[in-house]
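step=encode ok
step=design start
structure_in=
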């Protein structure tokens, strides 16, 4: 077994690992990158990219059904499900070179394609090599959680790792899990011609503002997605093409295909973390705000760090770690400015505190600003007037924003920036937004904070009357 010495050894070539590798090597550090699976990780191959490509195809299909309001005769689209999956594959293939082994080797990174395991506090073994490094970064991501439902080992099921390879359209897709993945896949498959039933043991989209989630769920149900909430699954049975989900209340739901979307499990198997003195649990590696583990040489980022499971969080973590292990500067993480989006139609986006969380944290000091998309001229012109923006404000600064509506994922960026930079609402109210755009809704919300002070102020009105009398 040959010995490799390096400055930084990264385990995992997903979003976080690749970002650290690219940044560190281009700034002069020696980097070894180890990946046992596919370059690009879950996001490129089985997550963000294929799901959004599938959603785009489904949106095109739905547009053919929704033309009547624009004076266009609606028609039921003919969906070639295999061709849709070809589109998904092309998108992955187009993006893949950016994450490829060849690109990173061209940057100067030593790439080892094998599974890694620690052999000591400062050594890792992989691909017939022993890698000794000054710093290690665990960026192994997560995998679909297979819940311990009786019968799960006897029936065929899909996860996000396998559903995008399915080329024959399911007649009736059963989805266990009403979180973002489950609801995105439910709407996309319904729009592509499948019957869909979502089974959620608690509340669908339960991590978001319930008022806004209700708008998304109402639209999905209107499109024909059956959503069963408070439905605890007690058993699975059947075979390919005929699967039965038994519920605690005695109901049985039958379908042709089953998708498990009940959460994700951090992938730390086989890393031999105990040998390295790295503490961990079922949520991930135990780290501080600086992402350093109980072994001062070892850091964890992204899903492996046990926090929010989003690709953009892994990228954010990469910047925090680079500051420390490449530049030697202190850096710590925060979650107060991290946004997330569910890419249903309408989209559902959140950053910072929800209304409930803000009221719990700040009590009566919280002001909640509301703006409906129905009052936005661009939303009306596009035929998408259903939606709502809520901004939670404390002492003139936003502490959270919740959006449901068209392009909510794009609109949330302004509020993420405002919270990250601790901007005052006056800065957003003073912004000039082009007309007509959806973005005007943010400016109007910020302006609404100052309206009572301007329009419901007797003292100000008296002053204005006086000014009008004395003006030449």
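sequence_out=
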């Amino acid at each position: 077994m040959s010995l490799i010495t390096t400055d930084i050894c990264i385990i995992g070539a997903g979003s976080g690992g690749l970002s650290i590798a690219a940044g560190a090597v281009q700034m002069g550090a020696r980097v070894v990158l180890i990946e046992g699976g596919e370059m690009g990780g879950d996001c490129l191959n089985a997550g963000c990219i294929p799901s959004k490509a599938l959603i785009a195809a489904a949106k095109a299909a739905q547009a053919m059904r929704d033309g009547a309001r624009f004076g266009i005769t609606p028609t039921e689209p003919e969906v070639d499900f295999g061709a849709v999956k070809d589109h998904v594959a092309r998108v992955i293939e187009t993006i893949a070179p950016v994450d490829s082994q060849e690109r990173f080797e061209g940057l100067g990174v030593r790439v080892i394609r094998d599974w890694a395991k620690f052999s000591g506090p400062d050594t890792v073994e992989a691909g017939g090599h022993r890698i000794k490094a000054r710093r290690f970064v665990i960026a192994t991501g997560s995998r679909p959680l297979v819940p311990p439902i009786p019968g799960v080992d006897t029936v065929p099921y899909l996860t996000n790792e396998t559903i995008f390879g399915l080329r024959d359209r399911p007649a009736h897709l059963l989805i266990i899990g009403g979180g973002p993945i489950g609801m995105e896949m439910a709407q996309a498959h319904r729009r592509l011609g499948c019957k869909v039933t979502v089974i959620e043991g608690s509340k669908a989209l339960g991590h978001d503002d319930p008022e806004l989630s209700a708008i998304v769920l109402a639209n999905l149900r209107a499109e024909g997605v059956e959503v069963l909430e408070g439905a605890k699954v007690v058993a699975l049975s059947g075979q390919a093409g005929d699967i039965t989900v038994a519920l605690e209340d005695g109901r049985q739901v039958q379908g042709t295909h089953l998708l498990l979307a009940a959460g994700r499990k951090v992938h730390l198997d086989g890393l031999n973390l105990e040998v390295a003195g790295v503490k961990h649990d079922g949520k991930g590696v135990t780290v501080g705000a600086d992402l350093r583990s109980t072994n001062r040489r070892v850091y964890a980022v992204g899903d492996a760090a046990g926090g929010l499971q989003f690709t953009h969080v892994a990228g954010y973590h990469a910047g925090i770690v680079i500051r420390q292990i490449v530049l030697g500067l202190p850096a710590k993480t925060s979650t107060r400015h991290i946004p997330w989006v569910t890419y249903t139609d309408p989209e559902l986006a959140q950053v910072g505190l929800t209304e409930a969380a803000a009221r719990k944290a700040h009590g009566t000091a919280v002001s909640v600003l509301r703006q409906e998309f129905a009052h936005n001229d661009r939303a009306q012109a596009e035929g998408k007037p259903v939606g709502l923006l809520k901004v939670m404000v404390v002492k003139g600064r936003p502490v959270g924003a919740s959006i449901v509506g068209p392009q909510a994922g794009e609109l949330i960026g302004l509020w993420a920036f405002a919270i990250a930079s601790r901007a005052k609402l006056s800065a957003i109210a003073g912004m000039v937004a082009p007309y007509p755009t959806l973005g005007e809704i943010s400016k109007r919300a910020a302006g609404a904070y100052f309206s009572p002070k301007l329009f419901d102020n007797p003292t100000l009105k008296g002053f204005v009357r006086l000014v009008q009398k004395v003006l030449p």
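step=design ok
step=annotate ok -> The CA atoms of residues 197 and 314 lie 32 Å apart.
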